Amino acid sequence: MPIPLPAPVARLARACSTLLLAAAAGMLLPACAQTPLKPKMTDAGIDSPASAIYIGNSFFYYNNSLHGHVGQLIAQGMPGFRHRATSVTISGSGFDWHDVDSYFRPNAIGGYSFGANNVVTFNKLDKLFDVAIMMDCSQCPLHPQLAPVFKDFAKKNADTVRKHGARPVYFMSWAYQDAPEMTAQLAEAYTREANANDAFVIPAGLAFARSIAQKPDLNLYVADKRHPSLAGTYLAACTTYAALFKKSPVGLAYNAGLDAATARHLQQVAWDTVQEYYKR
């Protein structure tokens, strides 16, 4: 269900969301009453991360997992570059459901992998992960009771990740299909906490808003109006690739099974969103 807001706040949120969607489509508009925050970190703090852990919920694991699609884009866009990724998800979870410290235990996650012909390889890793990509539950940053938890665990989890030699990355999730005002609210919340904790942000939610403004007939959602369709996951993957590696996904052959025109549109939206977010 959409998050209920007091009437004045709801009006402002809808106005901001309308401006954001129009700006995403490339229109020149006057500033919203509340100017969007600028991200302090414009990169993850590490060039071409060779390993990543995705810590989140079903928004990550839908459509055979976001990290798998990002891996395919890396293979296409960076031939020969070896990237290892693991997804740790709990259905419906927020920041506070995950014991992030435990994910960095030695000889646990990443201790072995499955290769060709189902051969198990035992890995000796000097470092588990370069970056930890973390997403709170879809409403948590905005919910009256859960927003303070979002703030507390954004700091706690970022500190934990740094303690283990990795860089914290927040994944800005998208608005529900029937609550577009969430876009501006989520962008504000994730950018604010990232700036407070020297963390990097992947602006997936802004990419969703841009695509909807430009191509409203392309459905980025499944029937529940929250979880991503294959097109939505592919857009999130392209945005993650563009943000982490500072490389354009436009023209990459991997399309996740989407038609070429749709894939090209989503690639361009991801690249435009990343460029706009980090310069604004």
Describe the 3D structure.
It is a single chain. The protein has 280 residues and is of the alpha/beta class. Strands 2-1-5-6-7 form a five-stranded parallel sheet, sandwiched between helices. The chain has a two-stranded antiparallel sheet with strand order 3-4. β5, α4 and β6 form a beta-alpha-beta unit. α1 packs across α6. The radius of gyration is 18 Å and the shape is globular. The two termini are 31 Å apart. About 10% of the residues have low confidence.
User: Structural class of the secondary structure composition?
Assistant: alpha/beta
Query: What is the number of E strands?
Result: 7
Report helical residue fraction.
40-55%
Rg, rounded, reads: 18 Å
Low-confidence stretches: 5-33
End-to-end CA span: 31 Å
Strand content: 5-15%
**Order of strands, widest sheet:** 2-1-5-6-7
Apparent shape:
globular
Mean pLDDT: 90
Task: State the order of secondary-structure elements, H for helix, E for strand.
Answer: HEHHEEEEHEHEHHH
Largest sheet composition: 5 strands, parallel
Number of helices, where a helix is a run of at least 4 consecutive DSSP H or I residues: 8
